[in-house]
């Protein structure tokens, strides 16, 4: 989850929402990373979820379902805001959790 989040954030570096339509590989790359994050989130145990309460687990899994099963209706503005607004705190929370495990 963390690595896919980092990838998505790296993909948008120096870009704007307008680039989603002008760069043919950007939107599919972001969607794929969100799908990976959601799939991974669906396998996280309840105990681990409880240790990282800042992550809205059901929403993370839900966006994956939406992207995979309603791919014909993907709204790029939502993909963009998810990556720009929601991923940074999620990646930070995962980093902190993983660092606690390494200590």
Could you give the topology of this structure?
Blueprint: H1 2-11, H2 19-22, H3 26-42, H4 46-51, H5 57-69, H6 76-102
Helix pairs in contact: 1-3, 1-6, 3-5, 3-6
Q: Quick recap of the structure?
A:
It is built from 6 helices and no strands.
Structure explained in plain terms:
By secondary structure, this protein is mostly helical. The protein has one domain (1-102). The protein has six helices and no strands. It has helices spanning 2-11, 19-22, 26-42, 46-51, 57-69, 76-102. α1 (2-11) crosses α6, α3 (26-42) crosses α5 (57-69) and α3 packs across α6 (76-102). The relative contact order is 0.18. The model has no long low-confidence stretch (mean pLDDT 95).
Q: State the order of secondary-structure elements, H for helix, E for strand.
A: HHHHHH
Low-confidence stretches: none
How many angstroms separate the termini? 20 Å
The biggest sheet, with number of strands, parallel, antiparallel or mixed sense and barrel status, is:
none
Q: Which bin fits the share of residues in helices? A: over 70%
Would you count the extended β strands for me? 0
Mean pLDDT: 95
